[in-house]
Design goal:
Layout: E1 4-8, H1 13-24, E2 29-33, H2 49-52, E3 60-63, E4 69-72, H3 74-85, H4 97-126, H5 133-154, H6 168-184, H7 194-204, H8 207-221
Parallel strand pairs: 1-2
Antiparallel strand pairs: 1-3, 3-4
Helix pairs in contact: 1-3, 1-6, 1-8, 4-5, 4-6, 5-7
Length: 223
């Protein structure tokens, strides 16, 4: 049996951030891809999955080597993995109040400021039964705002958000950065956010990220 079972969706952005960390730490896992149906009545909204995650969203992670402990919410999964299994501190940060607060700051910003806006933007552009121009434009502007925050920080010359290395803070942003760049920013935006684009390319080039994205490609093609 694999060390972990990961419940996810092939096209769901949040689940892949957990895969990045699992691969980086060399942890074995089996992914169970849920059928979302029309997004309101899929497997993620019904038992038995809602017994695992009562919020009815992905991802959820079961640790079979720790009494089948269950973690849901992607950022909680990332923190669990690095706190319990990142013994070499590959993706974690120093255990000081300052560093832990900085990590929390970035993860909270991603969870509250990036993912919801980018997710709603793509929803109104591609999934909503009615096109609402005001909603689409609002979320495009929010994407610019979020990228502007990141650009202002990365413009000081740092390669990563914190700790002088890639951490779970950087990995948390990656898949939603992809969605934002592809769907919400206008063409030519690299000139407006050059440091964000460079950071994004650096993260994509990490071997375990590249491996995970190949897995994602295979999963989406087999749907």
């Amino acid at each position: 049996m694999a060390h972990f079972t990961l419940y996810s969706h092939a096209k769901g952005a949040n689940g892949w951030s957990v895969v990045f960390v699992l691969k980086a730490l060399g942890l074995s896992y089996e992914t169970k891809y849920l059928d979302f149906g029309d997004f309101t009545n899929g497997e993620h909204k019904q038992e038995p999955y809602t017994k695992i995650n009562p919020n009815g969203r992905i991802p959820a992670l079961i640790d079979h080597q720790n009494g089948d402990s269950t973690v849901w919410e992607s950022k909680a999964c990332l923190l669990y993995l690095v706190s319990k299994y990142d013994t070499e501190n590959k993706l974690g940060v120093a255990n000081t109040p300052e560093e832990q607060a900085t990590l929390a700051k970035w993860l909270f910003f991603q969870a509250s400021g990036q993912a919801p806006y980018f997710g709603q933007g793509t929803f109104f552009m591609y999934i909503a039964p009615e096109k609402i121009p005001y909603a689409i434009e609002r979320y495009k502007q929010e994407a610019k705002r979020v990228f502007g925050v990141l650009e202002s920080v990365l413009a000081d010359g740092r390669e990563w958000l914190m700790a002088g290395k890639c951490t779970v803070a950087d990995l948390a942003f990656l898949t939603w950065n992809e969605a934002g760049i592809r769907h919400l920013l206008p063409d030519g935006s690299e000139k407006d956010f050059p440091h964000v684009f460079d950071w994004h390319k650096r993260t994509l080039a990490l071997p375990y990220v590249a491996e995970a994205l190949k897995e994602r490609e295979a999963a989406t093609q087999s749907e």
